[in-house]
Specification:
Blueprint lengths: L7 E7 L5 H14 L28 E7 L5 E14 L2 E13 L8 H15 L4 E7 L3 H5 L4 E2 L4 E5 L4 E3 L5 E7 L2 H5 L8 E3 L10
Bound molecules: coenzyme A.
Coenzyme A binds next to strand 4, helix 2 and strand 5.
Length: 206
């Protein structure tokens, strides 16, 4: 039996192992959503057109995709980035979402919510202590509807220790969740605080 024309499946790959036919579509969706705006927070401006503007490999980027079963069209995509952070003297395995995008002609049909909900489950089950990421303020409800928590008054300090890139420079809120017993016990330490994410010079914020 063949799947209905609009059936999509969830696929997951390390970013650099996304099959080329899918990767080219992901890059096209990202380019449409963030067309090299120099002030676009967290995205390195002015990359070479021929170069794959992938994430910093040190952040172990994992891509989650919703792909049409029949036509192999990428309907929505995001990347999960991860690193260890030290906060108030404790070490945590932290992950966050980056470059969440739905194809413009497929928006408003629940694909984005399905994908960020799947990412919540993947991060929860993947061994991270906690998740932290920023999003544009109007999208807070979108992420909350998919299981993510708003962390009021919390800001991420991206960039590097030498060149910090704080999220409070932008109209952004911080979302996240606490998964491990350690993170749950100390969740209050993350509310209303500046958190040194220091995600590096490539992914200045995630
Ligand atoms: C944000 C985005 C991924 C949502 O994808 P989508 O497939 O349209 O999302 P859904 O259909 O699952 O919508 C879920 C809900 O979020 C809401 N929503 C979507 N985009 C929104 C926006 N820009 N502002 C406010 N609410 C928004 C929808 O109205 C919907 O709410 P409802 O169910 O109460 O009607 C998509 O709009 C997109 O690709 N935007 C451009 C890139 C971007 O801004 N990414 C997020 C970076 S933080």
């Amino acid at each position: 039996m063949t799947a209905p024309a609009d059936t999509v499946e969830l696929l997951s790959y390390p970013e650099q192992q996304v099959p080329a036919a899918l990767r080219v579509q992901v890059l096209a969706l990202q380019q449409l959503a963030w067309p090299d705006a120099p002030d676009d927070p967290g995205h390195e401006p002015g990359h070479d057109p021929g170069r794959d503007p992938g994430h910093d490999p040190l952040l172990d980027p994992q891509s989650l995709l919703l792909v049409g079963v029949a036509d192999r069209t990428v309907v929505a995509a995001l990347d999960v980035l991860s690193k260890e952070i030290v906060h108030e003297g404790r070490r945590y395995a932290a992950s966050g979402l980056s470059r969440v995008v739905t194809a413009p002609d497929r928006r408003g049909r629940g694909h984005g919510r399905r994908l960020v909900a799947a990412a919540h489950a993947a991060v929860r089950d993947g061994g991270a202590d906690l998740a932290l990421f920023t999003c544009d303020t109007p999208l807070r409800g979108f992420y909350e509807s998919a299981g993510w928590r708003h962390l009021p008054g919390t800001y991420l300090i991206g960039g590097t220790p030498e060149e910090p890139f704080p999220s409070f420079m932008f109209d952004k809120v911080t979302m996240g969740d606490f998964f491990s017993p350690l993170a749950r016990e100390h969740a209050a330490d993350f509310l209303g605080r500046n958190i040194r994410l220091h995600s590096g010079a490539i992914d200045k914020l995630w």
